[in-house]
Amino acid sequence: SSSIWLSKALFAECHEWTTRAAAVAPSKDGQATEQQLLIYLALASAEIFTVGLSEQVMVIWTKALKLAESLHDVPSQLICYLPLWGRKIRAALYDDALDSAQRCAEAAKKAPDPGPAAMAEWMLGHTKHHLGRLAEARVHLQHSLDIDTEKARLAQVNAAGYDRRVDTLGNLASTLWLQGFP
Question: Closest Cα to residue 37, out of 4, 63, 7, 17?
Fold first, then answer.
């Protein structure tokens, strides 16, 4: 039912029930289960909308990422990397953000469509722009624009409310300006 709560913006209700579910979700012989992963993904999403990008939210997203990795669930791993990276970018932890973006890029290589790779390239370009690695940032940002698809971009807009194309174009313009190409 978490998809209903999240789609109807019933974040407090989703948070309450997924918190309860996370407390009792059983593992299978000490191993992660798909049910646990779905609960933690919903809980992390609800927590962002009720609390924000707090440290506690990052703990939940990290737990969801570890569950996704143990289950070899690449789409769920990709979902987790975005808020983890976003928190690091906002906190100006650029080296840590670069690590998250690189891990996302590695996971994206396993995805069958180019959308996750475009997201990872955007993350890499955005991060390298902040690190002052402008030539590298330019390559990543342009590559993100070149390989991105409308379907993948809109999926991120719907899931996270954030349009990476707008950010990519803004960062690319800034990068070009700083490189002397106004």
Answer: 63
Single-letter amino acid code for the residue at 97: A
d(CA 100, CA 128): 12
- Cβ of 48: how many Cβ atoms within 10 Å? 21
Burial 8-26 (b: 16+ CB within 10 A, else e): eebbebbbebbeebbeebe
Burial class of 146 by CB neighbour count within 10 A (0 to 12, 13 to 18, 19+): exposed
Beta bridge partners of 31: 28
- From residue 30, alpha-carbon distances to 20, 43, 50, 70 in Å are 19, 21, 31, 12
The CA distance from 152 to 114, in Å, is 8
Paired tokens of 121: 């390239």
How far does CA 155 lie from the centroid of its chain? 12
pTM: 0.84
Q: Where are the alpha helices (DSSP H) in the chain?
A: 2-7, 11-24, 34-50, 55-70, 74-90, 94-108, 115-130, 134-147, 150-160, 164-178
Tokens of 130: 């902040």
Of the candidates 87, 91, 126, 90, the residue with the CA atom closest to the CA atom of residue 105:
126
* pLDDT tens string 148-179: 988 888 877 766 667 889 999 999 999 999 99
